[in-house]
Description:
- The protein has two domains: 140 residues, Gcn5-related N-acetyltransferase (GNAT) (Aminopeptidase); 146 residues, 3-Layer(aba) Sandwich (Aminopeptidase), CATH 3.40.630.
- The chain has ten helices and 15 strands.
- The chain starts with 5 loop residues before the first strand and ends in a 7-residue tail after the last strand.
Amino acid sequence: xxxFEHSFDTLEGEALETVKGYFKACECHTATCTFLANxxxxxxxxxxxxxxxxFLCVSGRIKGDDEADPIMLLPMAKDGSWSDAAYRDVILExxxxxxxxxxxxxxxxxxxxEKDFLESIFPGQMEFHHDExxxxxxxxxxxxxxxxxxxxxxxxxxxxxxxxxxxYTVKNITPDMTEEVMAFVTSHKxxxxxxxEELESLHAEEDAIRRYLAHTEEEDVYSxxxxxxxxxxxxxLGERLNHNTAAEHFEKADDDYRGLYQVICSEFCKRLPEEIxxxxxxxxxxxxxxxxxxxxxRPDHKEVKYxxxxxxxxxxx
Length: 317
């Protein structure tokens, strides 16, 4: 598929900084739409990009699956602004390219505001859909730090048990810790005794974490590690989404320590900038156990994500 000219696999130098600049100019609402989220997981998707006018367009589909339909992120403006006429032009150009390859243009991971914007500039021409499994859980940072309130009493008990029982140290993760962190991540994977499709997913996650670790010293990338007796027992990695929200992309902890998951989340949140009010802890992917765990932390709200396609021409009234 060559809808757009360049591959994320070859991003480096000036091109890398240009693409990062487009992502940074946008006020991301969803954890799937950051530069690092795409760059780190690029082995899973045939991610391609191209500058069209003053916009960056990014497309992708599952690697190795020629039957998979390609998708696209909403085009990103160089200055982060929205303009009806300019947006119409770039989206129509993307649509032309998709249809030339035999595909419908399918835009994904849109916020409600972005969906409404598209609906306003293409009235009656697009259909939109919502998959609840992809909605992202957003929490108040201060609540994750303290676990205060009756609803979080059990979680607070776990955290208090850890704090009273263990002497631990906390440090930010730096690139020189990469091999130590990866050894911990690998051991965590083995302990899960995964196989088949789950094991393949964990391998992909390992690769993504390694890529994140190369960026931990950047201003808007956040990380924390916990040690007990000099041994690494938990990590958390994330980044800024917008002016008041950060995402926590990865969280790993040794299950042998009661309360460690609560503490690593709390320590990650403590180290976020003061202006960060919310923490996005991503979706539950339709997994019941993950859904229960995320709901148990009492999210403040969910970031609802939409997808949208153009109706076939003969279906437009």
